[in-house]
């Protein structure tokens, strides 16, 4: 299992690489997965970062608004989102940690939330286990 304790700078991108970012994250504080149809069908796996810890390095012109989400106009992926919700502490960037480059995520704590029924109740919490192990890339 990997150790994610402490603040660390991660780099990430969309699928085609047109959008690139970096963020200072402490993944040991917990990530979230939601069971709503948007998150479950797109594979979204989030971590909230404060604006001072997020930097868009490349691709501002490649971001397009589709529905409520900014996506890459080339590949359609959503590597991060941006919002301002007082209940979540104000302004934030929601980083899709599946879009982090070269990170083995086994051991990252995950809080599973019930967005499908709009309760946002925590259904479970567990450390992520990569089902592919070393056989199929980084998950």
UniProtKB/TrEMBL annotation:
Domain of life, per UniProt, equals Bacteria
Q: Does the keyword Zinc apply?
A: yes
Q: Which residue numbers delimit the CENP-V/GFA domain?
A: 10-121
Gene3D superfamilies with a match to the protein in the record? 2.170.150.70
Q: Which UniProt key words apply to this protein?
A: Metal-binding, Zinc
One Pfam family here: GFA
Stated family: Belongs to the Gfa family.
- What name has this protein been given in UniProt? GFA family protein
